[in-house]
Amino acid sequence: MEISERSTTLTREDLKVAQGDTVSFRFTADEAGEVHLHGYDLTAPVSPEEPSILNFEASTAGAFAINFHVFGGDPLHSDARTVVSETPVSVAITAEPDADGGVDIRIDTEGFQFAPESVDQAHTPGAGHAHIYVDGVKLGRVFESEYRIDQLPAGEREIRVTLNTNDHSDLVFDGAKVEASTTVSVPDVGQGHGQSGTGSEGHVEHDHEHNGEREIVAEVHLGNLEVYP
After folding, report:
1. Do 60 and 107 belong to one domain?
2. Which residues span the domain enclosing 124?
3. Would you tell me which of 19, 96, 165, 182 could form a disulfide with 169, CB atoms 3.0–4.6 Å apart?
């Protein structure tokens, strides 16, 4: 699993296993941190210099969140870059929870087009992608107007999207970041011991929390390990 810009390209199908399987994850990351598999309570430190391997038996069925705890001292993310749009641009979102604990999200923009083919390239006015957050945790990048979160912990959840340029700078118009948010009520669907979506009880951004001698400055949800009986 490659962790880049606090997200990963793995799909839901990549994270499905059968109960009793021996699972092996190899993690690489562009910044120092620790991967935490909730439910199984397994951790694996990882950094740009040192990949990590996590081996275990999938003994318990359910959906289990895989979160990345970002360590402090990260110059890449300490100061967010911004780009000011010279023309009007806006974003609005709607979010509909379903009976399975998932949420379907619609992102509508004006003066802005999604450009997945240009990600990581130079800024192009009126083009880029979105970043999506749940309770402050960045889930990843969005390259189209529809996005689905498969499972979230039950309760009130704030979903927020920001518009970003090809080089991941925050887009600003009229003195404010171009973003939108909404709150949804996620039903309790009995996810067992697993935590999904934002991780343990939805606690997401850490204000100078310490892990031993390492400071954790953020927690990012990477996906859910789904273990089937």
Report:
1. no
2. 82-186
3. 165
